[in-house]
Amino acid sequence: MTTLRTPTLVIDNIGILVTNDPTLGEGPLGIVRDASVVIENGNPGTGAHASVSPTVIAVGPSGAVADEHIDAAGACVLPGFVDSHTHLVFAGDRAEEFTARMAGQPYDGGGIRVTTDATRRSSTGELDRLVRRRLAEAHRAGTTTIEIKSGYGLNIADEARSLQVAEQFTTETTFLGAHLLPAEYEGRSDEYIDLVCGEMLDASKAHAKWVDAFCEVGAFDEDECRAVLDAGREAGLGLRLHGNQLGMGPGVQLAVECGCASVDHCTHLSNADIEALAGSDTVATLLPAADFSTKQPYIDARRLIDAGATVAIASNCNPGSSYTTSMSFCIAIAVREMNMTIDEAIQAVTIGGAAALRRSDIGRLTPGSAGHVVILDAPSYHHLAYRPGVPLIRETIGPLGGF
Question: In 3D, which of 325, 330, 322 has the Cα closest to residue 97?
Answer without folding.
Answer: 322
